[in-house]
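Two records follow; treat each independently.
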Amino acid sequence: MSTGPGLESLVDQQISVITNDGRNIVGVLKGFDQATNIILDESHERVFSTKEGVQQIVLGLYIIRGDNISVVGELDLDLDRSLDMTKLRAHPLKPVIH
């Protein structure tokens, strides 16, 4: 793996990615390159709504281009497991404007 944007410590960890178009994708970081293109395994997209619980759309092995990534964050697995996604309500994220 090449030197990258400080993601080395997150490899094989569950992470959450917010894309520039406002998507929230959660998965296990498997790799990345110097352009911050990332590979996620066991991934799913979380779709938020004010009317119903969070939809989780299974994506599996997924690649996200670095120029489409707005935020990468560690996931607190204990906290995440304690959340009842069927009861969460939230406005969908708006696209990120740089």
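The next record belongs to a different protein.
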Amino acid sequence: MSLAINWVISGIAIVITAYLLPGIHLSGFKAALLTALALGLINAFIKPVLSLLTLPLTVMTLGLFSLVLNALLIMLTAKLVPGFQVQGFLWAVAFSVVLTITNWILSIFKQ
């Protein structure tokens, strides 16, 4: 049950973030739920491998490369999920930052 609640909260966070950023286009809540699912799977399986492979670069940039990695994974998600579009790399970076903040705020209300 907790997994389903987290999934819906992530979907709501994606809708809010897409509403706040004009470079992010979302066709509806179903697309937001699919985006949350895809982003969760990508973050669970692909991101750890890429984080390990790019660890030296992340250390050399004092962690800033992790923003680049997050943006690239968001752009991958946009390619995979119909109804979710990102207009460019900088919008993907902004989406990553705003989504993190939105998820954090919504998680406060979940408790």
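Discussion point: The chain has one domain: 2-110. How would you locate this feature using only the token line?
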